[in-house]
């Protein structure tokens, strides 16, 4: 995979995601996660370690653009870890499932949904664990794991619908990314290492 | 054959271990590690954020000025170009007039030595019950954490985090329903029999307005203005306008005894294009301090 192009696309998508969030959000905090779509696109074509590093990087970006209210003072804080760990787990899930789904727009959207479920579950679990007396005992203000899961599931559905278009557009760039797709009859499963 | 110790897998495993450790660190530690990279990332995204925000605001906010171009068939091409140029100049003039009005309002209100720093809003974000604005001003411009941010004489919020060239403002509508703002509600114009009402505002569930509960005979009317009189805010914020009373209705639980007063900010805080940071002069820092 060509990392410079990946970084440029990640920059553009992150800018669109954060800059147009107010325009494309529904209700209370439901917006599409373009970074997740990019991660799944990379997972469909790139080698294993490349996928892992890409997911780790995108997880860090997600953490850096998210702030939570934690501690007794209720300060706005950036937590570097929850989304990063969630994306690492998501990379493992993506690597397991990419051989199962068909390499198509619908297959990619399915993979976005499935990987997103695991990512959001892990992220909410890590954020919820902060309230446990050990090791931290630092609950997040107004935190409800159930509410957060519902909100994230709504975002995931929105992201899955958005991925139908975005995966199609990213697919036009797969050669620019350096993803070599073998020609021939449509294959089931995944061959590239 | 010698084996490399630092293989990709091992380095990645180490990164994962660091991530797990990061999840277990106290919030203050992880925030101090991530705050600077976060602001660098926001600074890097500025070239995208500002035009996207203007585009977004243009779609969500009704146009204040409508240009009647008439039937295009009858207009000359240079006339259309002149109209377009005129619209741009009018917009720039409007923005400049807004900035001048904001600064003069604050200056008249404060009458102190605080420095007023105009700042452009590059991003308005909502997430996890927090509403923030990102400004294109940071520590290099003299912005410090805790400084009060206003739009004219209207209170917008406080600076919650500062980077070298950007800063984040937490809006007053970002407070949780359990916290409150102490305000004094008085008529906008002087009346024959002066009245005032001290209230505590709480953010509504929708997050755009405030509500306060008072007795049925509370001296408040629709149209009154709510001014901040909260000791937990710095002196520079005292007296700034929180909002206007937009509705008064019987309280749901005790309709005969109490009433519910709704206060709405005068501006849509998430759609502000420019704000003013009230910089406290260091040599005149109040001994009482804020929070």
Protein traits:
heterodimer; A: about 190 residues; mainly alpha; Arp2/3 complex 21 kDa subunit ARPC3; two-stranded antiparallel sheet; disordered C terminus; B: alpha+beta; Thrombin, subunit H; 2 domains; six-stranded antiparallel β-barrel; 3 helices
Summarize the structure in words.
- With 193 residues, chain A is mainly α.
- Chain A has helices spanning 3-19, 21-24, 34-45, 48-64, 82-97, 105-129, 145-171, 174-177, and strands spanning 68-70, 75-77.
- A two-stranded antiparallel sheet of chain A has the order 1-2.
- In chain A, helix 3 crosses helix 7 and helix 5 packs antiparallel against helix 6.
- Chain A is globular and about 50 Å long.
- Chain B has 291 residues and is α+β, with helices and mostly antiparallel strands.
- Chain B folds into two domains: 11-59, no CATH class; 76-286, Thrombin, subunit H (Beta Barrel), CATH 2.40.10.340.
- In chain B, a hairpin with a 2-residue loop joins strand 3 and strand 4 (154-162).
- The model of chain B is unreliable at 283-291 (pLDDT under 50).
- Chain B is globular.
- At the A-B interface, helix 1, helix 2, helix 4, strand 1 and strand 2 of A face helix 1, helix 2 and strand 1 of B.
Number of helices, where a helix is a run of at least 4 consecutive DSSP H or I residues of chain B: 3
Which regions of chain A contain 5 or more consecutive residues with pLDDT less than 50?
A: 187-193
**CATH architecture classification name of the largest domain in chain B:** Beta Barrel
Distance between the termini of chain B: 64 Å
Mean pLDDT of chain A equals 84
- Please state the average pLDDT score of chain B: 80
**3D shape of chain A:** globular
The greatest inter-chain interface is formed by: A-B, 51 and 50 residues
Q: What's the SSE blueprint?
A:
The complex is a heterodimer of chains A (193) and B (291).
Chain A: H1 3-19, H2 21-24, H3 34-45, H4 48-64, E1 68-70, E2 75-77, H5 82-97, H6 105-129, H7 145-171, H8 174-177
Antiparallel strand pairs in A: 1-2
Helix pairs in contact in A: 3-4, 3-6, 3-7, 4-5, 5-6, 6-7
Chain B: H1 8-24, H2 27-60, H3 77-110, E1 115-127, E2 130-135, E3 148-151, E4 154-162, E5 167-171, E6 181-186, E7 197-203, E8 210-215, E9 225-228, E10 241-250, E11 258-264, E12 274-279
